[in-house]
Amino acid sequence: MKHTFLFLFFFACVASIFSQQITCSPKDKAAVENKLVEIDGMYDGNFGETMVSVGKTFMETPYIAKTLEIGDTETLVVNLHGLDCTTFVENVLDLSKLLRADDLSFDAFIKNLETIRYKDGELDGYASRLHYFSEWIANNAEKGLLQDITGEIGGAEITKDINFMSTHRDLYPFLVDDTNYSKIKASENYLNNQAICVLAQDKIAENEHLIQSGDIIALATSINGLDVTHTGIATCEKDGRIHLLHASTGSMQVEVSKLPLADYLKGIKSNTGIMVARPL
Prior knowledge:
Radius of gyration: 19 Å
Helix content: 25-40%
Largest sheet: 8 strands, antiparallel
């Protein structure tokens, strides 16, 4: 009886710790498990094409902003019912990696998601999340998950002050906490000492042939304090052109851009070009 009590006490403690680290309702877990069944067999040896195939299974999924800003403490949020542009890319990369590894389990999905979303692959509070997408690319490159190929396809290094979060503290509920705020400031200070490679908007069309289906596309911006405003996945469509597969703020759902990427970006006043990262 004593051993049984100790076991139940230990189990309750583990469950409590688990629940504090992960936000995932039964409905959300079921959505992941259903998605794993849906994509089974999609990997054919071409990881880029797999990214596109998996990404297109999310077509018409609603765009929902700030899907990760939940609760009072940072947790690993699992949500396939509503996606923003970053969580769309993260989930597609995660699921594609599972296909290549031939491990379509919920536990592997969770492990991959934490690895992709957080600095050095470890959830350690709000500031450990890769909030700025240029840092998302750089940190995931360090993990060996992708390669920033922007320089190889005609991009050039730029420097820019990155401070949008700290200068717009009221937009981020977690920054009410002074510790979170100081850590975000430290992250921004680090980024300000790093050059960012960007393929200028007027150079995209001539270098489009160097972009492949499955490449991750980040939209660089002229907005003060920001590096990137949007992200998605490159897809070569029937017209032979590269389009953007993304969770769109225009249609408020996952879609493929009607216009080729180079033309689509011309309609975004603040866009200055793109960063391109190729999953490895």
